[in-house]
Design a protein that fits this description.
By secondary structure, the chain is α+β, with helices and mostly antiparallel strands. The chain has two domains: 196 residues, Fructose-1,6-Bisphosphatase, Chain A, domain 1 (2-Layer Sandwich), CATH 3.30.540; 125 residues, D-Maltodextrin-Binding Protein, domain 2. It has nine helices and 13 strands. The longest helix has 29 residues. The chain binds 6-O-phosphono-alpha-D-fructofuranose. 6-O-phosphono-alpha-D-fructofuranose binds next to loops.
Length: 333
């Protein structure tokens, strides 16, 4: 079906050829992430069945303990990355502390990975789209020694690559390097990701805004004014926009990347820094969006310029099409 398209492995190896000095570690790392994504995809597709046969922690027909999908996904990514030779350690939403792969081979690796193994897990039980997010940095600590917190607390602009997997009507892996954004669709029949969306660019404008309207009376008046603008039939020459909010940032950002749109999770009452995590949600999605021609801020600062202080710190996030972000900024000044 896709016999004239490149697989993820072939694509990453071809990209490797473009850089004579490349060691192949990054392409190996991306292939490992693709493997973990396939393992998670199998579990996502049967999770409802597993739930029917036993709530998380129960036992399924194979006598296996049914793990919560978040835990399963986290273990899948960690196990693949640990057994490879291209990653020195990870930060994950599921782990309070760094997970440093302190062994001889991993300590020689020049990359670290930050993960949100399952984004939008509230959607699992209702069979709605969920995602996984990853972010890759070159280490700043000494090779040959274990990775340190400094490797993970770099501003997003230092990312070498970033991507997400979206488990939707089809399963796609989308990743960006500074050279571009490319999307791969999983052919489950043979278990290969095929390059289905080469050179993804996001439209400068779109007709969607993604905001949880339950917070309408809990945001800064500037944000409220912008929401009114999104819904306006008069002041917004392109309006009113459709409100699409999936409760899974990966799904909302993916739709906006393809069709044009804006997603925002600002600070709301009780959440002074919003809800989303800077290091493994905002930064990777901001990197991808900027390479695709869009923009991402925390309401005032470029997301990629923010110096993280803590691996789990939260940040307000406004992300999407360039012209829609320009409109937003007029309200935020
Ligand atoms: P709320 C999912 O839990 C998530 O982290 C994002 O993927 C999603 O956009 C947001 O939280 C949903 O949060 O408060 O609107 O339910």
């Amino acid at each position: 079906m896709f016999n004239n398209l490149l697989t993820l492995d072939e694509f990453t190896i071809q990209q490797l050829r473009l850089f004579p000095h490349a060691t192949g570690e990054l392409s190996g790392l991306l292939r490992g992430i693709g493997l973990a994504a396939k393992q998670v995809n199998v579990e996502v597709n049967k999770s409802a069945l597993a739930d029917i046969l036993g709530a998380a922690g129960g036992v399924n027909v194979q006598g296996e303990v049914v793990q919560k999908l978040d835990v399963f996904a986290n273990n899948a990514f960690i196990n693949v990355l640990r057994s490879g030779i291209n990653c020195a350690g990870i930060v994950s939403e599921e782990n309070e502390e760094l997970v440093v792969f302190d062994d001889i081979k991993s300590n020689q690796s020049k990359y670290v990975v930050l993960l949100d193994p399952i984004d939008g897990s509230g959607n699992i039980d209702i069979n709605i789209t969920i995602g996984s997010i990853f972010s890759i940095y070159r280490r700043v600590s000494e090779l040959g020694k274990p990775a340190t917190a400094s490797d993970f607390l770099q501003p997003g602009v230092k990312q070498v690559a970033a991507g997400y997997i979206i488990y939707g009507s089809s399963t796609m892996l989308v990743y960006a390097t500074k050279r571009g954004v490319n999307g791969f669709t999983l052919d489950t029949a043979i278990g290969e990701f095929y390059l289905s969306h080469p050179g993804m660019k996001t439209p400068d404008h779109g007709q969607y805004y993604s905001f949880d309207n339950c917070y309408y009376h809990q945001v800064d008046t500037k944000v409220k004014d912008y929401v009114d603008f999104c819904m306006s039939t008069t002041s917004n020459k392109n309006g009113p926009y459709s409100n699409r909010y999936y409760g899974c940032m990966v799904a909302d950002v993916h739709r906006n990347l393809l069709k044009g749109g804006i997603f925002f999770y600002p600070q709301v009452t009780g959440k002074p820094n919003g809800k989303l995590r800077l290091c493994y949600e905002c930064n990777p999605m901001a990197f991808i969006t900027e390479v695709a021609g869009g923009r991402a801020t925390d309401g005032s600062r470029r997301i990629l310029d923010i110096q993280p202080q803590h691996i789990h710190q939260r940040s307000p996030l406004f992300i999407g099409s360039k012209e829609m972000m320009d409109d937003l900024e007029r309200f935020m000044r």
